[in-house]
Amino acid sequence: EPEVTQTPSHQVTQMGQEVILRCVPISNHLYFYWYRQILGQKVEFLVSFYNNEISEKSEIFDDQFSVERPDGSNFTLKIRSTKLEDSAMYFCASSAPDSPWGETQYFGPGTRLLVL
Amino acid sequence: AQKVTQAQTEISVVEKEDVTLDCVYETRDTTYYLFWYKQPPSGELVFLIRRNSFDEQNEISGRYSWNFQKSTSSFNFTITASQVVDSAVYFCALSDFSGGYQKVTFGIGTKLQVIP
Questions:
Q1: How confident is the model at residue B8 (pLDDT cuts 50, 70, 90)?
Q2: Mean pLDDT value of segment A80-92
Q3: Distance to chain A for B96, nearest Cα, Å
Q4: CA gap A40, B96 in Å, rounded
Q5: Where are the alpha helices (DSSP H) in A32-112?
Q6: Contact assignment for A45 to B45 by CB distance below 8 Å
Q7: Which residues, numbered 64 to 83 in chain B, qualify as contacts with chain A under a Cβ-Cβ cut-off of 8 Å?
Q8: What residue ranges in A1-116 does DSSP mark as E strands?
Q9: Is B44 close to A110, i.e. CB distance below 8 A?
Q10: If you measure CA to CA, which chain A residue comes closest to B4?
Q11: Which of B37, B103, B110, B111 to mutate to test the interface with A (most CBs of A within 10 A)?
Q12: Cβ-defined contact of B32 to A41 (cutoff 8 Å)
């Protein structure tokens, strides 16, 4: 069964450093998402991406964040200058090709980011 | 604005007991989608069910069943004859027109512990 994959599974970084989280969505999906989950809290939407551009973003997704689809398979989230409060589990998701309207988003296993 | 409330933060049951996880949602839209996801201790998010606002039929899948009641804005999830493998955090979630259908709003989650 196709699944979303994410690398790395864990990342430790120093405050102020840049990190890139990588995701490979399900191959025929065209809509991609990033969410984050601070430890013990709920999952929060960050951004959605379609046709090589951001289609929705939350207030969390500020100028420190960027997303990119550098090739036909990868989807990345970059945090330019990490802060302590960026420590969280980051989930990538993708949804079916027809439209994003209410389609199920399938999530990857997550990348646990720890900022020291 | 969209909101999902899961009033039960933690539930413990003894194996083979039935358990119901409550979910109450808020949306201004008439078209919306509801989801349940499971997050086992390993951390990934596993899709369980999707329901659109026009389909109020209850659904059963093996030991899982869902009760959707628009009149009370609730989408409750019941596990029959619970098993230890059901121990996880369960998230109820919503996507609607106001959120562009791309942003999925999650509840805080209910942590279910099934005791052998």
A1: very high
A2: 96
A3: 7
A4: 25
A5: none
A6: no
A7: none
A8: 5-7, 10-13, 19-24, 31-37, 43-50, 53-57, 65-68, 75-79, 88-95, 105-107, 111-115
A9: yes
A10: A42
A11: B103
A12: no
> Which residues on adjacent β-strands are paired with residue A94?
A32, A106
C-alpha A37/C-alpha A93 separation (Å) is 13
State pLDDT tens for residues A19-63: 999 999 998 888 899 999 999 889 999 999 988 899 889 999 999
* CB-based contact A109 B43, cutoff 8 Å: yes
CB pairs A-B closer than 8 Å: 60
- Residue that the structure tokens 């109820």 belong to: B92
Distance CA A70, CA A80 (A): 17
Closest CA to A45 of B33, B91, B104, B96: B104
Confidence class of residue A97 from pLDDT cuts 50, 70 and 90? low
pLDDT at residue A100 greater than cutoff 60: no
Question: Does the pLDDT of residue B73 top 90, yes or no?
Answer: yes
* B37 interface with A at CB cutoff 8 Å: yes
Question: Is residue A76 scored above 70 in pLDDT?
Answer: yes
Half-sphere exposure (Cβ direction) of B68: Cα atoms closer than 13 Å: 20
CB proximity list for B71: less than 8 A, separation 6 or greater: none
Write down the pLDDT at residue B57.
85
